[in-house]
Amino acid sequence: MKATKEEIVSKLRQDMLRWEGFRPPKPGADNDLGLGPVAAAFPDGVFPTGAIHEFISSKPESTAATGGFIAGLVQKLLLSGGACLWISYTRRLYPPALKLFGVDPDRVIFIDVPLQKDVLWVTEEALKCEGVATVICETKDLSFMESQRLQLAVEKSHVTGFVLRKDVKKVNTTACITRWQISPVRSQLRTGMPGVGHPRWQVELVKVRNGKPGNWIIEWKKQSFQTIIAPRIIEPARRYA
Amino acid sequence: MPKRFASIWFRRLLTDQKAIRQPELKGKAYVFAEPDHGRMLITALTDEARKFGVTEGMTVADARIIAPDLQVFDGIPGRNLKLLTGLAEWCLRYTPYVQLDPPDGLLLDVTGCTHLKGGEKAYLQEIVSRLKAAGYHIRPAIADTIGSAWGVARFATSGLIVPEGAHRNALMPLPPSALRLPADLLIKLRNLGLHQISSFIYMPDSVLRRRFGKNMVLRLKQALGQEAEYLFPLKEPVPYTEQLACLEPIKTRPAIEIALNDLLERLCKRLYGEGLGLRSVLFSWYRIDGKNGNIKIGTNHSSNRVPHLFKLFFIKMDTVAPGMGIELFVLDALKTEPVSDKQSEIWTLKGGADNEEVAELLDRVAGRIGSAYIQRYLPGEHYWPERTPKPDPDIKKAPESEWRTDKPRPMQILDQPEPIETMALTPDYAPKLFIWKGEQHLIVGADGPERIEREWWDDPGEHRDYYIVEDEAGSRYWLFRSGHYNAENNQHWYLHGFFA
């Protein structure tokens, strides 16, 4: 009788995940985005595609680092085809740099929206479109209701959305499935070598729905993510919704 | 198919229009006058004024003596042309070929149009009754040639619809002025006692030409259909067009949307049958008060999918102002192109960037924010950082060369390099520290210099020596020194970008 009870509980957990908009990956689909140990923090141990991910940056240096991290993820998402849209109000992204992260800059369609209020409209339209593989939206503010709309749009279309929030003064609650904070850290070369090494970031998974938030140091080397030290889980007992 | 032409003569175009604008003038004697050699000459007048004996060309002073209650308004030169253009646009619903016939008429090519209203009689009846209801006094006629229709409309008392082939007989009893001849020729004909066309129609051409000149023969032949005459249409007719006339004026948004959807479905069905798709569409509406407007949309690739085209119009639907009500909608296909009839790939969920759904998405975005803001970059073969990504609006174009990966490039770049204060060893060492926006960054690692020369054939100026530097916090920057060191100029270090 006890085994049945456990079965029921685990089934209910699975159901709740589904009701909350999380879908288990399709069998055969390769959802491994090369994040290595970081993937353990996500529900079921896979990076949730078809969801909205929020990235917070407070200064241009960390915006650049976030851009690099997103580009590394996008590289894998584009392998199965589809378009990539980069929507922004004031764009500083330098397209040739994407190539260093494995993304062909000519596959990315940049939409430089002239009015800030149109950014989220364009993003929502793009997220609803099933021919799009991923949408990156650079914006400043994202209210809870706006994030809910974006989340509802992707639940139907399975598009993966990245919201890069620049110069955020006050962090508010959103309906996004994860919240990341990425900042550059000192790169390391072999001892005694001068110069600047590979891009290295402090990747902080501040919030993840049904997962365990964490903090890693990741380096971009040989066209893939390399985790430098073992993941250190903060407060494993606490669950963020 | 024999050609049929209609001529509509607005007997008192200017005065009728005045009475429509100011209904209290109806049935009053009033005239329009224009200055000429220091006096006011009457240019247009009502029937009531004519009863007093006032005629066109009379001075206002004379007319006031015979008709003391005469009201005089200032005539505006060119007003009749403006009114005729408006009326001609209104007539486009009856035929695509409408020509202005100054000073006071319209010519319509009605070949193949009359059966739509149930025959020529009903066709003419509808035009007449609607224009009369608006308040115009008109005289229409339909005949085989432009010349005969013109003459019959103005001078015949009955038989305004001349049957096919009967225009010669219809012209016989009419005065010579029905042939659109100049005044001096008409005086000559009257002096000779030729009061009817029948009195000279049988004369040989050579005699007429010697006596009255080439123009007279040409006009006669044109009226008889022996010489070709063409209409110059007001608007170039488009090959694919659909229109929807409403029984009752339409005012509400759902009704306008239904009308648009209906038109799109009809047009797309036709195009689909011919393997064509739309690239540019114009949706115009005509209001009952004579005003009109239109919305134009364009697509990235030819499409005949109604829901997509409807969505593009829907974005701009707010600009439709129905006012008192809309009576006619017209949908013109301005540009069509063969549509690629490849089947949508069902099994591969996501195609390339050029697939239909993405193209439709970009159409919608372009409709809202403008297509100039949608950008894609191809590798430009330049070393100069600002020119390395080459903007190209064509979504489908494949890059001609590879993107370079041998040199590191920053993730974020500043549009304008920002000047910074640095402390650096000469001649070509990376800075030891730099100050940007009042914040001091101590540099712990640096790569460089990478010298990039200016493209001297494009712009003159100094070269740049780029350094990749990393500060204590781990932030990586792209700095450059502009030109060489020299004694008088020390402000030449700039911050250009941020590395990931």
Automatic annotation (TrEMBL), chain B:
Gene Ontology process terms (BP): DNA repair
Phosphoprotein found in the keyword field: no
Region (Disordered): 384-404
Domain UmuC: 18-149
SUPFAM superfamilies listed in its UniProt record: DNA/RNA polymerases
Pfam family, one: IMS
Keywords: DNA damage
Tagged with keyword Nucleotide-binding: no
Superkingdom of source: Bacteria
Protein name: Nucleotidyltransferase
Organism phylogeny: Bacteria, Pseudomonadati, Bacteroidota, Sphingobacteriia, Sphingobacteriales
